[in-house]
Amino acid sequence: MPFISTRGGMQPQSFSETLLEGLAPDGGLAVPEVMPTVDGETLERWRALTYPQLATEVLALFATDIPVPTWRG
Q1: Cβ neighbours of residue 68 closer than 8 Å, sequence gap 6 or more
Q2: Which of 7, 40, 50, 69 meets the CB 3.0–4.6 Å disulfide criterion with 28?
Q3: Domains recognised in the chain with CATH numbers
Q4: What is the pLDDT along the chain (73 residues), one digit of tens a residue?
Q5: 73, 63, 34, 2: CA torsion to nearest 10
């Protein structure tokens, strides 16, 4: 998932690149280019997850360049 600057002066970057840089080079905040959506079926499936599993699922929506654990699913 590409991240862009709120000020518009940054080429899209991956989650990892954005995380390592902190603020965007133009001083803006780095935000997802498109916000992911979660449907009701997914929310229902997430109800049974532990907190670490749920956090992994939510972060996986944004950190698409980082592999997720094998127990994910």
Answers
A1: 56, 60
A2: 7
A3: 3-62 (3.90.1380.10)
A4: 999 999 999 999 999 999 999 889 999 999 999 999 999 999 999 999 999 999 999 999 999 998 877 666 5
A5: -140
Residues 6+ apart with CB under 8 A from 24: 4, 5, 6, 7, 9, 10, 18, 30
Tokens for 17? 């690149």
Supply the pTM of this predicted model. 0.80
Rounded CA-CA distance 55/43 in Å is 13
Whether 1 and 64 have beta carbons less than 8 Å apart is answered as: yes
- Cβ atoms of 10 and 4 within 8 Å: the answer is yes
Rg of the Cα trace of the chain? 14
